[in-house]
Design brief:
Structural class: alpha+beta
Number of helices: 12
Strand order of the largest sheet: 1-2-3-5-4
Shape: rod-shaped
Order of helices and strands: HHHHHHHHHEHEEHHEE
Strand content: 5-15%
Radius of gyration: 43 Å
Length: 455
């Protein structure tokens, strides 16, 4: 009992390995090899990949001497000629592992040659004609290799050539028995049909996997669009309500609060106008989020450099002493650069309002001779240290990230950082034309200096 107990784990291990090997062999047999790849070349197990070579060597080693003996003893063929015919009929089985169609041509020619050699034979096996029993065995093995590799058109041509050659040879020997000819024709047809069906099943499974992959990508895209639509709805529900309240309060303030000075009325009017503009822009962006890329949102004009003066004036009304130096002749500016420059100045001024209220700010926009647009926003230290606005700012850094992304998309350069006196500097260079738009375009820009804030 003790010895049996000790032997049980190795037997279990051997059984598990055997089952695993059989599953791997079955998977390899149902996965036809690609062109140029040996049969079962995609199997994970090494012994499964070597199996076609082992079978080929075994067939050649057994069929070659049997064919020579049969031709010399039973068909009365000369020994040298019998050896040549037997080699042509069996040796190409080794080639069938990687090139079965080429191997079939050689075997087929050897089979026809053997039939012609034995045509006038009157030996004891002369009635087994035009094919010999060893040839039938090797030919069937070759049909399996062909069916797993070649197209249905090629397989039909092989089967048709086999039948036509058999019937043509039969016509040369009237009255001869054609048992092996009929047997080979039926067996080759069945084997080619089965193996081609296996190949077709594998191709269908591969296409199914490809379609599932495409479907998964479509599902991911649909999920993304649904998530974007959900975010758009939430943004609209949360932000639009508050922006609408601000607009209503600012518009109604002169009527609700009697005796407001004219400056306060203008300030409330500016707040209402800015709120309405922000609300309209937010709705335009949300329409883009709701779309799937095939249809855009509202086709309203985007802000550009021509609105920088209004932007700076709004910043001044917010309590920041800002001044603008804008070149009178900027030349032709692409729409992407025009919008990016405006957004960079807008974000830079918004950061000044949030983080350095009351700081003197200079905005400079000019075009250089080398085809680049220089945008520079420099502010000094805050005039209200410890102000509520400054303390309440969270400083997420999303604004700077957005600037870098815009500059990168246009092919420009961005440089930001604090100044020794406590201020901050945002410097950008954007190409006036898309890269490569004209021969001999602008050269790489040089870093901006603080002195470049004049027109």
């Amino acid at each position: 009992m003790g010895n049996e107990t000790r032997r049980e784990p190795p037997l279990r291990h051997f059984g598990a390995r055997a089952r695993e090997g059989l599953r791997g062999l079955g998977s390899a047999l149902t996965t036809p090899a690609a062109a140029g790849e040996p049969l079962l070349g995609g199997a994970g197990s090494r012994w499964v990949r070597l199996l076609p070579y082992v079978v080929g060597v075994a067939l050649v080693a057994s069929l070659l001497p049997v064919t020579v003996h049969l031709l010399t003893q039973d068909y009365g063929v000369n020994g040298a000629l019998a050896g040549a015919v037997a080699t042509a009929q069996t040796a190409p089985l080794l080639l069938a592992v990687s090139r079965p169609l080429q191997a079939w041509w050689v075997v087929f020619a050897g089979a026809v040659l053997g039939a012609l050699v034995t045509l006038a034979s009157d030996g004891s096996r002369a009635h087994l004609w035009p094919w010999t029993p060893p040839l039938v065995i090797g030919y069937c093995a070759l049909m399996v290799a062909l069916g797993l590799r070649e197209s249905r058109r090629a397989l039909f041509g092989v089967w048709l050539a086999t039948g036509a050659a058999g019937y043509a040879l039969e016509a040369l020997r009237p009255g001869g028995r054609t048992t092996l000819h009929t047997l080979l024709l039926v067996l080759s047809g069945v084997l080619l049909l089965l193996t081609s069906a296996i190949r077709a099943r594998s191709d269908a499974q591969r296409r199914l996997v490809e379609q599932e992959t495409i479907s998964e990508a479509e599902r991911s895209r649909r999920t993304l669009l649904e998530e974007r639509a959900r975010i758009a709805r939430e943004l609209h529900d949360v932000v639009a309500h508050h922006m609408s309240v601000i607009t209503v309060q600012a518009d109604s303030a002169p009527y609700r609060i009697p005796g407001l000075p004219e400056a306060a009325r203008e300030e409330f009017g500016s707040i209402a106008a800015s709120a309405r503009e922000s609300l309209a822009e937010m709705r335009r962006l949300l329409s883009v989020l709701r779309s799937d890329g095939g249809e855009g949102g509202e086709l309203t004009p985007q802000p550009g450099l021509d609105r920088l003066q209004q932007l700076v004036e709004a910043t001044v009304r917010a309590g920041v002493p800002a001044e603008l130096a804008l070149s009178a002749d900027l030349g032709e500016v692409s729409q992407a650069v025009d919008l990016s420059a405006y957004r960079i100045v807008q974000e830079a001024l918004a950061n000044v309002v949030r983080h350095a209220p009351g700081a003197a700010t200079r905005v400079s926009v000019r075009a250089s001779d080398d085809g680049w647009l220089s945008v520079l926003v420099v502010n000094g230290p805050s005039a209200e240290p410890g102000s509520a606005v400054e303390r309440g700012a969270t400083g997420t850094g999303h604004g700077l990230v957005g600037m870098r992304e815009r500059v990168r998309l246009t092919g420009g350069f961005l440089d930001t950082g604090p100044l020794p006196d406590g201020g901050f500097r945002v410097a950008a260079r954007l190409p006036l034309r898309p890269p490569g738009a004209a021969a001999g375009g602008g050269t790489a820009p040089t870093p901006l200096t603080d002195s470049e804030d004049t027109a």
